[in-house]
Amino acid sequence: MMLVAKETSWQRQLSDLITDPAELLSMLNLSPGDYPVPDDILATFPLKVPRAFVSRMRPGDPLDPLLRQVLPIMEEGDDTPGFTIDPLSEADFNPQAGILHKYQGRILVLAAPHCAIHCRYCFRRHFPYDENIPGRAHWEESLKWLADRPDIREVIYSGGDPLAANDRHLAWLTKRISEIPHIRRLRIHTRTPVVIPARVNESLLTWLNDCQLQKVMVVHINHAQEIDAEVAQALQKLRNANVTLLNQSVLLKGINDNVDALEALSESLSAAGVLPYYLHMLDRVQGVAHFNVSDDRAFALMDKLKARLPGFLVPSLVREEPGETSKTRLI
């Protein structure tokens, strides 16, 4: 397999992200002066959003569920008790550069330190990526560390967003991981095919098809409005490459915390060949408390959702808690 290093459509889109809140708001016929964003918030966690994602937002609607996921607001500067910079204590599970080992039998590989989009509720918005960007020599050390641990059966590409990395790197890394006898599955957690569907191109599909491991991709879609015809087509290409598609979403106040939105999301995922997997309670990272939904409200929403949908389209409501051996399944 030979992957040619050249800029492609998705890379051009990745280099042409909207990073200025005033530009984003003006594109949506909203007045930037009505939505001031402090410079310190933009300095610590800048706005990043692909134009393909913006094209699915409703012009003139400041409450658009896609806009609310990416637009920085004043409340991010609030110092909220119980919300920290490392809510999952990931610093305690970082044995090698680029690797998080939180759960038995599987590891997270931080395949890229950056994302195509900055979701404002991101639990890794304060993560020390500068300490987790291995060069080729450091990757060799991490691969040796993995090869020496036969209890690990699954590798999970995470980040950042792993599909923000180029295909030459991902093809090399996947080939090396596939050569480790005890690895059975490759799981990829990504939002890039949703926010830049052109990412699902020939070079990506080539190394996925070449990979002999069981392949699972967990996409991240919070609202049915995120799935347009181009996204559905990209997901179909992944299915054609024998990739099992699951979705995880986050329960977010003002975005999907109503039963109609959750039902529409599950139905839209099903139509696109994606199985609802997890509905996460918000990770309590500093700066995101305005998105928080109470447990009581979450339980009530799930009861209503179960009454409307067949069981296989109802995601598991979960919370991730530091030090636990798995995610805590609430419903």
Q: How would you describe this protein?
A:
With 331 residues, the protein is α/β, with parallel strands linked by helices. The protein has one domain (80-329): TIM Barrel (Alpha-Beta Barrel), CATH 3.20.20.70. The chain is 32% helix and 15% strand. The chain is built from 12 helices and 9 strands. The chain has helices spanning 9-14, 21-27, 39-44, 51-54, 65-70, 136-147, 167-178, 192-195, 202-210, 229-240, 259-271, 295-308; strands spanning 99-103, 106-110, 154-158, 185-190, 214-220, 243-250, 275-280, 316-319, 328-329. A 9-stranded mixed beta sheet has the order 1-2-3-4-5-6-7-8-9. Helix 7 (167-178) runs parallel beside helix 9 (202-210) and helix 11 packs across helix 12. The longest helix has 14 residues, at 295-308. The chain starts with 8 loop residues before the first helix and ends with a strand. Residues 1-6 have low confidence and may be disordered.
